[in-house]
From TrEMBL:
This is DUF485 domain-containing protein. It comes from Salicibibacter cibarius. Keywords: Membrane, Transmembrane, Transmembrane helix. It comes from the Bacteria. The chain crosses the membrane at residues 7-26, 38-60.
Length: 80
């Protein structure tokens, strides 16, 4: 898989998982079942938010850190 395709895939997975967090608002996964100490809708949203948090860290390390370094180098060259 090429780098660009992997980028698109990661971003699309993030948005799909983010959209799934709204399912309890529409009555899906919105029952009074309990999973451990949490009701089902809260457990569902927390689980998906954990997945999104890992994806955000991955995106930050792969794309924004190198971009920030390039911008710092460009600023240093501009000051010289």
């Amino acid at each position: 898989m090429t780098f660009k395709k992997r980028q698109y895939l990661i971003i699309w997975i993030f948005f799909i998982v983010y959209a799934l967090t709204f399912l309890p608002h529409f009555g899906v996964m919105n029952s009074l079942n309990w999973i451990g100490p949490f009701p089902l809708p809260l457990a569902w949203v927390l689980f998906l938010n954990v997945i999104n948090t890992f994806i955000i860290f991955l995106i930050y390390k792969k794309y924004f850190v190198p971009f920030s370094r390039r911008m710092e180098k460009a600023e240093l060259k501009g000051e010289e």
